[in-house]
Amino acid sequence: MLRTNEKKLVIMSVQGKVVNPGGRRSHSVDSAGKPFHLPGTGGIVYNIKVGDPAFGWEADHIEPCASTILDEKKRYDGANTGYVFYACVGNEAIIKTGDAKGKKGTVTGHHGGAEHVMIDFPDSVLEKMTLDDKILIKGHGQGLKLLNYPDIAIYNLDPKVLKKMGIKVKNKKLQVPVTAKIPAALMGSGTGSLMMTGGDYDIMTTDKQFIKKHGIDKLRFGDFVALMDHDNIYGRSFRKGAVTIGIVIHGDCLYAGHGPGVSTLLSASKSIIEPVINPGANIARILKIGRFRKR
Questions:
Q1: Which of 31, 96, 107, 126 is most buried (most C-beta within 10 Å)?
Q2: Could you write out the three-class secondary structure of 227-288?
């Protein structure tokens, strides 16, 4: 049994709205020098949810289900940073306005740069939502600690999700179920960031043969993954023997240095986290949301 400080955590509300989809007026260029002009971040995405493939969509950096923000014009100011900080993976989100008022969803990650918080809602709720709806999130999770493992940092994770991840203790190590082990060499955009309590960083997917060899082309939104030899204690960096557990929060990207985004959940500089491959290690499966929601 994992002993935590859950009873000491603060539960604090933050409120945002659905963010308008962003769009470019001209083509972008991919890692092979080819132009593209495709849907990207933001909005209400009706046909992509946690549990769906993170690859193969005619899109770039696509975010599953509903993308939210506090302030589109001041996304890097303190209030919007607070919205992202308090919203932890697994938190309850409640729509407070409009035809979908009172309906509930689940936070599934946050996207750095865009400063978005993604929320999963049932299809019936998406049909009633508008871009003007206000959404209240019960922020719960920042400050979570494993009392028996002080060398492991936890960020952005609701305590109830931690309990359902299937983590076991063996030989004084934490065995954490993941769908894939990501080689350190593949971590790109976002490496070096100091903001582990917000945002994400990308698995680079330019080398298609290499990612196929490691099964990374099979990743899904909401998958728990292990970033090997990556330390997320005081910043996102390479450290031999370190392991970081994260969650896939946006889809594949065409830019050089980019790919599916991963938000930090657990990290240790020492070799005390042991990732164990389990195809079912996905938030949609364990919380019965997204593609695995009961109809």
A1: 107
A2: EEEEECCCCCEEEEEEEEEEEEEECCCCCCCCCCEEEEEEEECCCCEEEEECCCCEHHHHHC
Q: Would you say 175 and 168 are in contact if contact means Cβ atoms under 8 Å apart?
A: yes
What's phi and psi for 85, nearest 5 deg?
A: -60, -50
* Confidence (pLDDT) at 30: 82
Please tell me the distance from the alpha carbon of residue 35 to that of residue 152, in angstroms, as a whole number. Answer: 43
144-148 own/partner pairs: CB under 8 Å, 24+ apart: 144/4, 144/5, 144/6, 144/9, 145/4, 145/5, 146/2, 146/3, 146/4, 146/174, 147/3, 147/4, 147/5, 148/2, 148/3
Burial label, 50 (beta-carbon count in 10 A; 0-12, 13-18, 19+): buried
221 neighbors 48 (Cβ within 8 angstroms): yes
Q: Which residue has the tokens 């919007």?
A: 80
Q: For tokens 């997917």, what's the residue?
A: 205
Please tell me the distance from the alpha carbon of residue 273 to that of residue 264, in angstroms, as a whole number.
14
Work out the number of other CB atoms within 10 angstroms of the CB of residue 98.
Answer: 13
Burial class (CB in 10 A: 0-12, 13-18, 19+), 11: exposed
Q: Which among 147, 238, 239, 236 is positioned nearest to 197, based on CA atoms?
A: 236
Q: Do residues 216 and 205 lie in contact, with contact meaning Cβ atoms separated by under 8 Å?
A: yes
Spell out the domains of the chain, with CATH numbers in brackets: 9-140 (2.40.10.170), 152-287 (2.102.30.10)
Q: Over pLDDT 70: what percentage of the chain?
A: 100
Q: Residue 24 has what pLDDT?
A: 77
Contact 245, 200 (CB under 8 A): no
Tens digit of pLDDT for each residue in 93-127? 999 999 999 999 999 999 998 899 999 999 999 99
